[in-house]
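Can you please make up a protein's amino acid sequence together with its fold in token form to help me picture the idea?
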Amino acid sequence: MKLPHLHCSTALLSVAMACSVLTGCGADVATTAVTTTKLQAEQAKQAAAQAEQIKAGLAQAAQRAEAAASAADSQ
């Protein structure tokens, strides 16, 4: 009678170990996903800052062009 009980315990232990391994893999995947999301958010933030710099540069260039055109008209 003890052999079947021992067999069940071994099977339960195997299932428990498999669950532990799979849970560990899930945690790694979740951690990787969070890290990737954070990196993508930082890249988006940097891209937005670069876009603002480009817009500011274009606005300055437009102002210089207007000033040059105005100066040329007044001569």
The mean pLDDT is 79. DSSP finds one helix and no strands in the chain. The longest helix spans residues 2-74.
